[in-house]
From TrEMBL:
<dbReference type="InterPro" id="IPR019587">
    <property type="entry name" value="Polyketide_cyclase/dehydratase"/>
</dbReference>
<dbReference type="Pfam" id="PF10604">
    <property type="entry name" value="Polyketide_cyc2"/>
</dbReference>
<protein>
    <submittedName>
        <fullName>SRPBCC family protein</fullName>
    </submittedName>
</protein>
<dbReference type="InterPro" id="IPR023393">
    <property type="entry name" value="START-like_dom_sf"/>
</dbReference>
Length: 139
């Protein structure tokens, strides 16, 4: 099983960051790669569309409001992986009420690609996503 993780500090309190990204249906609010999200099954499944019109379906597998993190599994996507589970976490930065660390990590099995290729793919997605979050919070 392959894995990757990207962290980024952003210029906002943990409460503000979580209020933006903590909703399972909130990706279009901060992630340009996902302009559309529709919830299914009472909010436990999200159907995402990327700019190319490709569909990604994900299931929420863990959610912790108090600790500010959630995990999800990909059920369907145009990515060369299976067994994908990812976690998005919001961490307070000690002594900095106006700065937060956000960590996006995932583990997955390559399927039709090399481990290096899929690690590079998701490292790029996470990095670009957290860069977009930084820009959204800096505006």
């Amino acid at each position: 099983m392959a894995s990757t993780s990207v962290s980024r500090t952003v210029p906002a309190s943990p409460e503000k960051v979580w209020s933006l990204i903590g909703g399972f249906d909130a990706l279009p609010d901060w992630l340009p790669y996902i302009p559309e999200s529709t919830t299914l099954e009472g909010g436990r499944v999200r159907r995402l569309t990327n700019p190319e019109g490709e569909v990604i379906i994900e299931r929420l597998v863990d959610f912790n409001e108090a600790e500010r993190h959630y995990s999800y599994a990909i059920l369907q996507a145009p990515f060369p992986v299976n067994g994908y589970v990812s976690t998005l976490r919001v961490h307070a930065v000690p002594g900095r009420e106006d700065t937060t660390e956000v960590q996006w990590s995932g583990r997955f099995n390559p399927d039709g690609a090399t481990e290096d290729e899929v690690v590079d793919l998701f490292t790029g997605i996470y990095r670009d996503g957290l860069d977009a979050l930084y820009e959204t919070l800096s505006a």
